[in-house]
Amino acid sequence: MIEKQGTQRMIEADLIFSLWILYIVFTRPAKELNLELDKKAILNRGDNQTSQNKVFASGDAVSGASLVVRAIAAGRKTAQNVHEFLSK
């Protein structure tokens, strides 16, 4: 990834939260947002959007507990998917 000057921007959001590591940690907030879950994680549509439109999930919240490098890679992929979604 190459940083480009002048491309950073701030996006306002009503709610941002991080879900990770233990299923128990994110089960309650996920259920409060009516997100579909399987036995280990939040289900997504393949573009990192959850069962709720405009709600994205990544890393351990989607794949279950894994290596940190996989979570980082998933976070980058999700960031790209969010960017593409917002650019429409």
Describe the structure.
It is globular, with a radius of gyration of 14 Å. The protein is built from 3 helices and no strands. The longest helix is centred in the C-terminal third of the chain and has 19 residues. By secondary structure, the chain is an all-alpha fold. 38% of the residues lie in helices and 0% in strands.
Structural key phrases:
3 helices; single chain; mainly alpha; 88 residues; 0% strand; 38% helix
Give the SSE map.
Elements: H1 23-32, H2 60-63, H3 68-86
Bulk shape = globular
Q: Which whole number gives the mean pLDDT? A: 77
How many strands appear in the DSSP assignment?
Answer: 0
Helical stretch tally: 3
Gyration radius, in Å: 14 Å
Order of helices and strands: HHH
State the assembly state of the protein chains: single chain
Largest sheet: none
Helix content: 25-40%
- Kindly report how far apart the N and C termini lie: 22 Å
Model regions low in confidence, pLDDT < 50 over at least 5 residues:
none
